[in-house]
Structures
1.
Amino acid sequence: MAEDGLQVPAASVARLPLYLRCLEELCANGVATVSSSRLAELAGVNAAKLRKDLSHLGSYGTRGVGYEVINLTHEIQRELGLDEQSPVIVVGLGNLGQALAKHGGFGDRGFPIVALFDVQPDIVGMQIGDLVVAHFDDLAGIVAHYKARTAIISTPADAAQQVTDDVIAAGITSVLNFAPTVVQVGEGVALRQVDLALELQILSYYQPRSDSERDTKLRLSV
Amino acid sequence: MAEDGLQVPAASVARLPLYLRCLEELCANGVATVSSSRLAELAGVNAAKLRKDLSHLGSYGTRGVGYEVINLTHEIQRELGLDEQSPVIVVGLGNLGQALAKHGGFGDRGFPIVALFDVQPDIVGMQIGDLVVAHFDDLAGIVAHYKARTAIISTPADAAQQVTDDVIAAGITSVLNFAPTVVQVGEGVALRQVDLALELQILSYYQPRSDSERDTKLRLSV
DNA sequence: TAGATTGTTAATCGATTAACAATC
DNA sequence: TAGATTGTTAATCGATTAACAATC
């Protein structure tokens, strides 16, 4: 139960947004009630794991029936702290940063992008979507004005640590780093790192290879 | 030892590209030898974990000395199957797809993007970087021509499953899905899914909150 | 009631980490 | 040799899953 102050295990926390996405799709399709086995199928996970994950939030299902879609949606949103909108800033407006800034998926899910920052003279002042890129020197005032707590870092690797330090100094407490380098943050700051090329390198290991001396790791479907 | 055909644990596989990135940075800085504790520090992981991960590849360190940077780089590349370039296709050239297509980081790390596909009349024919967007109807021939085995899916959610099925039918065996929906693949196909907004929702849980009835989960640094 | 499905238990599995013998 | 660091052991920790009593 959330009221107990018990932590939800990290592996469960990482799956809750996935369930949320599936629930929202069910809701959009007019489905009112869903069983753990059906929701697990949609999310691509084991049904027992899903029930275990949900049990950390409390008992919101009905035995013999399932979960009420709208109710469970709200409980997961509450647990994740998605009750209110969280303004987000983006630092580094190269190709990826521009795409992230124009990407509607953040605002749709409670994370409106409110400000963009760069230092390049040819990028500062550029209009991207509804926003104009500000100079990184103006960070502190703008972050304070919007009460932004979350930053997306999409700078080159060699700038990422300094930018991270600076946004934290300006009041940011959640950092999503897309720069291909490890950044360090102190306690009290939440951090996730996404490296797009790294994902392809992980996939490479599982790619069936016949040319190598190693046995094929996955068989093609029968 | 890789020659034994023993599988490297999934958690270790997911970290090997991270070590690789750190090693390449060390190499660029002219560092010839590195200890597990230094490399672990750069990668942001525990040193014992790093040594355990590397032990699955074989014994490539020297006690009392450390690891030779170039040698270890090659061993990790070999283990991941990064010996040769892997041509990649991108399907769905919206904001994100365009950014991924222009993103130099893939080609730099052995994954040159060789073809782009969409179905929208205003996108097919568009030049993005060095490439022109092809129609998805021409998928099979182009995949065969480039011998592409890896696909990046950046379509809307409602198209992702059909696109995934089609690229697999065309010969793709590794799929990196950015569409915000779960896609299912059969055996013999490797799959990873990245949902950008989902990362922000996970961060939200760990964001210190004083307004909630729940205790703050992380303290601000002392 | 009978059928269905949750919430939880307990067993298993896999990942992490400190410690240290091996050894350069 | 003495100091340093790997590779591995073993203990611990956390995650997964099948099974089923509880119960709608």
2.
Amino acid sequence: MKSEKISQLTTNRLSIYLRCLKELASEGLTSVSSDSLADRFHLNSAQIRKDLAYFGEFGVRGVGYDIALLRDHIIRILGLDRSYNLAIIGAGRLGSALVDYEGLLRSSFHVKALFDVDPKKIGKKVGGITITDLKNFQSVVKKANIDVAVIAVPANAAPDVFEKIKKAGIRAVLNFAPVRLNADDEMRVRSLDVNSGLESLSYFLTERPQPGDKPKPAGKARKSAQ
Amino acid sequence: MKSEKISQLTTNRLSIYLRCLKELASEGLTSVSSDSLADRFHLNSAQIRKDLAYFGEFGVRGVGYDIALLRDHIIRILGLDRSYNLAIIGAGRLGSALVDYEGLLRSSFHVKALFDVDPKKIGKKVGGITITDLKNFQSVVKKANIDVAVIAVPANAAPDVFEKIKKAGIRAVLNFAPVRLNADDEMRVRSLDVNSGLESLSYFLTERPQPGDKPKPAGKARKSAQ
DNA sequence: ACCTGTGAAATCGTTCACAGCA
DNA sequence: TGCTGTGAACGATTTCACAGGT
């Protein structure tokens, strides 16, 4: 508990716990122990306790956690007790889908701007948001007080867009393009990348006969079949 | 080296290395050292070497790695040298966007079926794929030899859809719904969850004054201010 | 009796540093 | 000399197991 650094693994799990607590709350439950929470959602109870302990003592020994209370604590810890303005770059199918994604409606995140470079799209509306020319990115971002940029453009356009985001001083990026974006320490990029997801599934489906009967030497021409 | 278990972190990085190698190859380069690869893409060269070493000796001491060769090795390791049939469940904006997502076009993954429950959608086409009634899931999955299911339905529908996927014997799932799906060991679920992504950004943006000056005891009523 | 919070142990992952090959 | 492959050191994360509240 001292002022240690909190690992990202921990905060990602807080996000999961929050979702679980919301589900329990919606069932009308009021209290839960780390064990029952773990059983129900396939988590580890010691880890739940440890994760929470980094931030305070939210439970009562012998009793468990008050669901509503713990939920609100996690909301505060994650910074979800305020609202964030999003800008989406790329008004293709994905970008448009995000504008009125149901999950965003009840959340702390609100789409305030949608950009594209296609003159045929600029000026049109998607879910109440007018598509703006990417040329005006910087000024619109300032005016709308954007906190988070969402990259929903094709891979080849993503690096340029990322530079624009950097220049505009936006510190948080959600990236859907299948590219590596090199962020400095001032920024945080989260990539939700369909390809990586599928590739990891591919590895899982590839039943390796043995994970360790590998080909041997490298070299360009096999020295001889011998 | 020995038949150790390969960590998921390693295979995820292979996916990244693959992307990097493709980029280098497209620039006409033929050879690269772990150091230059690391510099260029902000990776760690020792880690690259170690990750690769789990699967074989792909490099040449004093020289480096042959880009095309290493790329092909990783493709084989990840099981990307064959093709996979996808079924997408949910023909909303997200599901439809995925059907002709550019990233999928040049990949090993091919959308073979698209399901929905909405009678108004069933029978219509999206990017060459006819939307099928979810009722026929099991039989269509068998006929089309589906390897991977993609969940693109609202959160409340996701658990039922997941059960259907399980019953149909599909072992790999890409989940876009913001819910926890409890997979057994036979299955692998990868969740690409917009909400978790945003919540992790939210934590990052929440400048904690000190990560460790927490509230203290819990308990319902403070015993006294004393 | 029950359940949290937490040191200590165990496990897992990363980085170092260098032997050995081209 | 240059760069890989790899034990060994280090660091991070998870799990155990129990002291201490209620």
